[in-house]
Structures are given as structure tokens and as C-alpha cells.
Amino acid sequence: MPKRRVKYHKWQPSARPPAVMSCNWKYTRHLLFGCLLLYIFLSVNDVVYHPGHAVHFLIFDSGLFRDRSPLNILPNGVLSNYHFVCPPKKEKRTPMNQQHIPMFIQQPNLMESTSVTNSTYSIVNPKSSYNLCDEIEVLIQAKDWRNSRKVYGGDYFRARIYTARYKASAASDGDIVDNGDGTYSAFFTLRWPGEVKVGVNLIHPSEGIFVLNKLREEMPTRFAYTGRFISQDDNHMENVDCHVSMEKYKGPVCDFSHKATGATWYCVKPKDTNLSCDDWLWHVGNTTKSHEQALTLLTNSEAMLFYIQKAPIRRLQTFAVNVSWPSPTELRALSTRQLPPCKPGTPMTSPYASGFFWHDVWFSNHCSIHKFSISEARECLQHKTLHFLGDSTVRQFMQFFLSRLGRTLKKLPLEPFVNWKVGPFGAYDETNNITMLYRHHGFPIRNSWTVSSHVDYMVNVINTIHGGPDTVVVLTAWAHFTATNLTYYANRMQSVLQAVKELHQRSPDTLVVVRSANTREHDGTYGAVYTSDWYARALDDTMKDIFSQYPKVGFLDMWDMTSSHYSNDVVHPPEVIVANAINQLLTYICPSQPELDR
User: Per the count of CB atoms within 10 A, which of 64, 242, 250, 468 is most buried?
Assistant: First the structure.
């Protein structure tokens, strides 16, 4: 069948317009264009009418007076000032949760495990109205798939409060308290006005936690790594297994450990007699083999425990509270307390949430964070050298600067054939004399094929840094360690801390900032057994326990940022979260910026 020809009627300006446009088109066109401009202006400035609170944007956001140019660290359209700080409370609670892992479980049963559909949460003794800085308690009741109440703890819940209208959210004050009897308590400080809702997710049931704990202790070498050995004449090649421990290997091994850093690394010695340990050339994280192994690590009943992960549980009738808007007098009283700029010594652990989001802007509960424009950031970093050491989550910071600071900051590889995910690579801004360097923390590394000689350990790199008031070191190490045990990780972090102390002995003015772990996606059973948030949080707690003993470092709490934000959990957080972290990092570097923000 031939295609139908569509006949188009072109309206000529000299002809009479259609009946719906029979009014004076010249003035109507101007009026519509003006309305469109007004709508764009109001949308860009987030000027929204709230019944009974028409001056909300003036009091809390200064919306009409915000700098909405695209030249800010925060994404275009994300900018908000806040004018008060909740005073610290006298009562203290244990900031971290000691989970009751039920060691008596032998054969985990799905029907007896904690159910997302039957478990519930509700606000304890709710009131009709709350004031800013009031505290609420949320009670969680775990139930199994038969709808029976659980009588033991160990579940991994995560809770937050939020107001979607204002893009406001916060994590619980400290970890959720495990009462050991199937109930859990979460506490929140109400830090913004309006209707505040509560959300609770079950990350893993206690039965799943039992399985994960068993894997961590009994199979710390479960992830697969491959080393490639190639002879000098390129005529012989062999791929072998490598890992942090040689216990799983029978026969001779090549020992590539670096005892001074606490880093162990072994590869099976090639069977080809033409290859020696000196011929180790390439390394790769063998994700294909790891995927294949994932299901073999669990029984069918154990695997079923991870079919549902990070799912919301059922709320009872009361799951939201109304927080009164402050009167001008209350506002003045609350706005008198000011927080100091972020500087080394900011608490890593606290009985309260480390901060909260308001209109997608992160406000620390411990220190004030300046919201930098691009020009301020460039001026702050002039004549500075920044070392980004760790995994891809700290490399993301350097990539953010490369995308934000303009064309004058150019990426420069430091080695031929370098894997940019592992490094080393750098960036240099000749105009502003800004130098940035990135290097991976060393083995274990899950990335694609990497030249083994390009890999160096974080401790070795720190030991080569001369330091000084214009030197900044940003470090993290967690994402590649979730499939190892805590003892190995703690030893690595202790050696990193010692290297930082020695750096400060050489140059006390060197700024060192530690980036915490963050929440991430769970890719089915594979994600559970290798990269679960339960593993990551345990590493993060270990790291904080080690570095909190040394108050000369700064701290970026990415865990509270990502666990409270409305965005999906991903190993590389979205731009808005990274931008807020960069603002805090820049505040550490240049704390003398004008105090325009809370």
C-alpha cells in the first residue's frame, strides 16, 4: 500500500489567523512571551507558594536573591541558605549499633526470616505538632513471613526522615538501636519545618546477616583475581589466581607482599617453567569468575534470603509529623548559634546524624560549610597540590574538579598504557598553578586489566609526599575491601594512619581529609556476598575507630549523605551529593571564606 501524502497548510502572516487566535495577535504574543519568562524566572528560583507561609522563600532560602549562575560548585538551581542550628542535647546515646548476630542459626529458613511485608514501624507517642529541634522515636517491629514476631535481633534496617517537597532528609541519630528482642529503636532530631515523614528499609534480615558474617570470616578470599605472567620474549603467557592470602593455594606461590604497609599479595606460581615470578605483568579483578562463584558459595535456602534487599517495610497509621514554622522571635533565637567552619578534628562519630539535606544542600551538624562559586574554588586551590588516594569514589572527586574548573585544568597521564581507573594520572592548571594527582590504594583491585608495576600502595605514596601548607591529601579505602575480613582491613588502615602521622611530623601544615564509605547498589546475590552495605558499614566503622584517635585529619561523612538522600544507592554517588562533599572539602582547605552560610 503506497504511503498517504499528508497535505500541510502553511499559515501566511498576511492571512487571517485561525479563529482561536482572532484576538489581537501582536499583543497576545507579547503577553504569552512575558508569562513564559516569568514562569522560567520563578521556576529557576524555586519560588513556591506555601499556604500560610508566603514568606518561606525569603526567610529560609532567600530565593529571589540567590546567585543562580551556572558558575557554582553545586549544580545549577541548587542553592539554599539556612539560618539556625539546633543546640546540642545533654543526653548521650551509643552512636554505633552493636548488632546481635544470632549465631545459633544453622539452616536459615526463608519463612522464619524477617519479612519486608509483615515488619512494621511507627512513631512512639506521636503529638499533633512539634517544634524545630524536637526529637522523635520510631519503633520497628520485625516479623517473619508467617507474620510472627521475631524474638531476636540482628536485622539490618536503615531509616531516614524526609520532606520530598523541600528535598530535605536526614539519617537517624546514630545507628538504629537493636534491642535484641525483635524490636528496634530509631531516633531523629527534627531540623526543618513542615510535614516530615519517616521511611524504614530492611537491607538484610538477621538470617542473611548470619550468612554474610560466616562468609566474611570463613571465606575472605572469595572474590577472584587474575594475574597474567608473560615472558620477556613474549612467547610464553599464563593466567593464574591471585589474592591477599595464600591459604587457599596448594603448591608454590609468588609472594608480592609489602610487609612495611601490612599489604599481602600472592599469586600462584606459573606452571610453565619458562615463566618466573619476575614475569608478572598484568592484573585484573575477575568479575566473570566471581559471578560464577557467587551462587556456589550459598545453599539454595541461603540464596533465597537475598532475593529481596533494601526494600521498604510496612508503616502503621502514624508515619509523619508536623513541625511548626518558627515565629520571627523563635527564628532570631535559633539563628544566634553559629557553627565554626569545618576543620580537622570534626567528629567522625556522634550520637546524632552528621548533617541533613535542605533543598538538596548538605548542612553539617558539626561545622559550617561554605557554598563555593567556581571562581572562589579556583582561587582557593591556587598554588595547591591535591593528592587523591584510594578507590574510584575518591577518584570521582578529581573527575568532578576536572569537569567543573574549566579547560585550564587538563588531565595528564603519568605512565604509558595507564589504566585511568587505577592510575597514576594527574591534572595541571598552568594558569592557576593547581596540581592534582590520583593513585589507587593498591591491591586488592577489582578493575580491568592493569599493568602491575603501575600499582603502588597508599602508604608508599604518602611516604613520598613532602607536604606543606599548600598540600592536600584526600584518602579513602573501602569499596575493594568488602570481600576481605576486618582484621586484614584494620591492619591496612593502621599502616595508613601511621604514614599520615609521619607526614605530619615532616610537615605539620599538610591537610589530610578522610572520605568515608558510602551506600551502594546491591546486584542480587552477587552484590550481597561481595559488596553488601553491611560489609561496607563494618569497614567504615573500623576506619573511623582507627582515625578518630588522631584529631589532625578532616572527615567527610559520605555515609550519612548517601543513606539519607532520596537518590538511589550507587557506588558513585550522583553529582549533587559529590558537589556538597566538594564544598565541605574546599571549606577544609580554605576555612577563611566569608561566613555567608550556616
Answer: 242
